Amino acid sequence: MAKIKHNNLLDTVVSVMTNAKESGAIHLYAEDEKFNGRQIQLHGEKLFHFGTTGYLGLEQDDRLKRGAIQAIEAYGTEFPLSKSYISHPLYAELECLMTKIYGNPVVITKNSTLGHMGVIPSVVDDGDGVILDHQVHWSLQSAVNPLKLRSVPVEMIRHNNLQMLEDKIKKLQSRCDKIWYMADGMYSMYGDYAPIEELMLLLNKYPQLHIYFDDVHGMSWKGKNGSGYVMSVLQQLPERVILFGTLSKTFGASGAVMVCSDKKIQQRVKNFGGPLTFSVQLEPASVGAAIASAKIHLSEEIYTMQEELAEKIAYFSKCLKQTELPLIVDNDSPVFYIGTGMPETGFNLVKRLMKAGFYVNIGFFPAVPVKNTGLRITISRLNQYSEIKRLCEALVVEFPKALKDTHTNLERVNFAFGRNTVRLSKTGTHQPNLSIDSYHSIKEIDPDLWNKTAGGHGFYDWNGLKALEKILKGNDTPEHNNQFFYYIIKDPNQKCILATFLSYGIWKEDMLAPRSVSVAIEKARQTDPYYHTSSCLSLGSMITEGDHLYLCQETPYWKEAFNLLLEQIELLEKKLKPQYIILRDFDTHNNAIKSFLHSKGFIQASMPQSAVYREFNWKDSTDYVSTLSKRSRKHFRKDIEAFKDKLQVQIKDNLSDSELKKSYELYLAVKENNLGLNTFTYPFSLFLHMNTSSQWEFVMIYAKENQDQLIGVMFCYKNSSNVYTPAVIGMDYQFSREYNIYRQLLYQTIMRAKELGSKRIDFGLTAGFEKRKVGAQIIDRCCYIQTRDNFALEALEFLRKD
After folding, report:
1. Dist. CA 688–CA 685, nearest whole Å
2. Whole-number pLDDT of residue 572
3. What is the pTM of this model?
4. Which of 103, 213, 472, 544 is most buried, judging by how many CB atoms fall within 10 Å of its CB?
5. How far apart are CA 11 and CA 13, in angstroms?
6. CA 584, CA 610: separation in Å to the nearest integer?
7. Which CATH architecture has domain 9-55+302-416?
8. Do 435-606+785-797 and 612-779 show the same overall fold?
9. How far is CA 126 from CA 17, 148, 152, 242, 621, in A?
10. Under CATH, what is the fold of the domain 612-779?
11. Does 89-283 carry CATH code 3.40.640.10?
12. SS3 call for 765
């Protein structure tokens, strides 16, 4: 019945990246006729290049260039044959050199992405389990996904959270032969490291544990023979550790390399490693360049290069420490992340730096949480000290300007990254055109003002919220306790242009997830009721549905008003520390809102469709049917009219204790069978209130053939603005198909609303297909989300049954 349109993460990513592209921060084209590693030309201007992942600048080394050219001249542009048949002549030399670098058996792969796709399914058996660090590189996460089809359990932990890792190990050790933990050695966005020494302690403690490191960003600039960050810590590769390095990025060529101390694993992967078997091998030029680079790695020169880079890293770090710029991680890696908070601030700063003569990367969702946008600045051995100093000076000048342009400040940026506890200014950054009033109870707001603005929908008019505040307070279970916050913003003429309310409480993280995810999670909740639940600050509440934000977009002040609201939400965030902020129930096609909230650090997520009925220009049921489409009229006669004589319909203002109990049981039956919108069960006190409030009534359907047994009920609210709201439904599934109870309830709701002279029915979310059949208008809905990190979003993705 209530099938939710899945919130496809890819759609969200595409939408966010489209904004980044339109801002001029990504998908650019270099215009250089020749590269020197220090500069890159964009839009006709030469910029100093601080966005490379070639940290040692080996891609510009003449020896690598000659190696590539000579290989092409000797063997052509490619060797179009799988390595399973024949490797071209240079491969043997490269494999020998890479074995010397690592001191262990290796397998050369086309790139790290194809390498993970080949290695992971080969080494992870059906009886194994996998645990991922939630910031591990996308290529590795993608390679793990197919394991779910083999029923391999896949878990995820928060970034570098060793306690959570050990808990997951304990959870899996009784049902898994081997447990694979997968992480990066050095993480590509913030430049931070895996806690390798601590992980080795866990490796020794748990014999089932195996560790799979992706160390492509730690390669070459660190470690003996440039073997990478992981090897710089380990020195010797343990038997139960698999390591991935790269022949591209800092290595200067192309390809990737798997390393392990177990010869059997190496041969297993080499003999049949999926893409490693069927893909065309590395081009001769790549192998020729890699051989030249490997020889440098095996010489003393690599240590001179590492030291030169280390000195420039230390110099940039020293320069930054003399500023107030928000450096997110301070270590000795060549990656520096300067936080900007909101995406629009990051985009603005990137463009400013381009005008000042510098190119840097933008870090944004999904690589980082959307409100943790920032500049990813990388230092290369080829960068000169004078350029590094000038970049720092440009940042000091341009960073405050970008903050001012985007109506934010350093305190808000620091808060977004959890860097300190600086009190946020209550005056905010908006212009003094508007006034804002905040309240903790609807009782403090003029009822007429509220009902004419935000309260004209659903059951959250003034009276409804007054009751809801009482119902969601003082309960034994945390999910049934909410805090409420109200905001009214007026223009210079004291006209209300924004009105809304927010609530704070516990939500299920899978509320908008596919049904298959909720089914799996609900099994775990039988023993752990609050598994995958989080604190949430949301427009509206968990119980209400509809347009929770009244915003007059016709006024020139609407963005300023929305900015002012977001500042107030940020103050609440500082106080309450919710995992999620959700601005919900927006029209998906409101592109102005979409663009505005994307720039403010919110990502769009799909919600179930909502439905509204307005067409009351008919006299009776026969006339009503004539307003339906030809197809819907057919459905009406077959699925609704055909059962009218078998059913009895009653409208009741009050129910007996037994009737209310039965109605609540029918609601629970719908709740248990409908995981398309998975929320906590509503408290029984809500239904007790319905039974005493003059604004609530019950549309009851009985089966005549079963001694007038109650088989369906619609709990309906009569809004003060003459809007009828069927807010909750209950059905007996034993009879639901036999009598098409759901469609009967929809039809009877329309008949009752007509009888009351209602101007509109707010049918709420889900089941848009069914509501369209009875003449309702369907509206695509979405919400906008901010999270403290991406962990919950990514963890739920791995629970999907693809």
Report:
1. 5
2. 95
3. 0.82
4. 213
5. 5
6. 12
7. Alpha-Beta Complex (3.90)
8. yes
9. 36, 10, 6, 18, 60
10. Aminopeptidase (3.40.630)
11. yes
12. strand
pLDDT value at 603 more than 70: yes
Distance between CA 230 and CA 244 in Å, rounded? 10
| Under 8 Å between Cβ of 11 and 18 | no
The gap from C-alpha 544 to its chain's centroid, in whole angstroms, comes to: 24
pLDDT of residue 17: 74
Q: How far is CA 443 from the centre of its chain?
A: 36
Cis previous bond, 284, omega within 30: no
Proportion of the chain above pLDDT 90, given as a percent: 66
CATH entry, 435-606+785-797, from 3.40.50.2000, 3.30.70.20, 3.40.30.10, 3.40.630.30 = 3.40.630.30
Domain boundaries, the chain: 9-55+302-416, 89-283, 435-606+785-797, 612-779
Q: With contact defined as beta carbons under 8 Å apart, do 769 and 757 qualify?
A: no
Q: Classify 428 in phi/psi space as left (phi over 0), alpha (psi -120 to 50) or beta.
A: left
Q: pLDDT by residue (tens digit) across 382-398?
A: 999 999 999 999 999 99
654-684 tens-digit pLDDT: 999 999 999 999 999 998 887 767 888 999 9
Q: Are 171 and 318 in contact (CB under 8 A)?
A: no
| Strand order, beta sheet including 696-703 | 647-652, 696-703, 709-718, 723-731, 760-765, 610-613, 777-779
- Confirm if 18 and 599 have CB atoms less than 8 A apart: no
Q: Which two tokens stand for residue 802?
A: 């693809």
Strands (E), 427-577: 435-439, 483-490, 496-508, 533-539, 549-551
Burial class of residue 317 (count of CB atoms within 10 Å of its CB; 0-12, 13-18, 19+): middle
Amino acid type, 201: L
Backbone angles phi, psi at 634, to 5 degrees: -65, -45
User: According to the model, what pLDDT value does residue 801 have?
Assistant: 54
Assign 422 a pLDDT band (cuts: 50, 70, 90).
very low
Q: Would you say how long the chain is, in residues?
A: 802
Token pair 């940042």: residue: 395
What is the number of alpha carbons within 13 Å of residue 52 lying toward its C-beta? Answer: 28
Helices assigned H by DSSP within 357-384: none
Distance separating alpha carbons of residues 682 and 479, to the nearest angstrom: 9
Tokens of residue 279, six digits: 């893909």
In 509-640, DSSP assigns E strands to 533-539, 549-551, 580-587, 603-606, 610-613
- Choose among 452, 527, 546: nearest CA to 496: 452
Nearest 10 degrees: Cα torsion 749, 753, 754, 757 = 180
Cα dihedral value 291, 292, 294, 297, nearest 10: 180
367 closest CA partner among 141, 131, 599, 110 = 141
CA distance 594 to 533: 27
87 close to 143: Cβ distance less than 8 angstroms: no
In the three-class reduction of DSSP (H, G, I as helix; E, B as strand; rest coil), residue 133 is classed as strand
Structure tokens at 621: 């049921």
Q: How far apart are CA 509 and CA 177, in angstroms?
A: 30
- CA distance from start to end of the chain: 21
CA angle, residues 542, 460, 669, in degrees to nearest 5: 45
Token couple for 492: 């210079």
Nearest to 743 by CA among 632, 653, 618: 632
* Tokens linked to 578: 């919710």
Residue 430 three-state SS = coil
Mean pLDDT of the chain: 90
What's the rounded Cα separation, in Å, for the pair 683 and 85? Answer: 67
Distance CA(700)–CA(682), nearest Å, equals: 20
Report the relative pairing of strands 373-378 and 358-363 from DSSP bridges: antiparallel
Non-local (6+) Cβ contacts of 641 within 8 A are: none
Task: Taking residues 328-346, report their average pLDDT.
Answer: 94
Q: How confident is the model at residue 10 (pLDDT cuts 50, 70, 90)?
A: low
| 510, two tokens | 């899978």
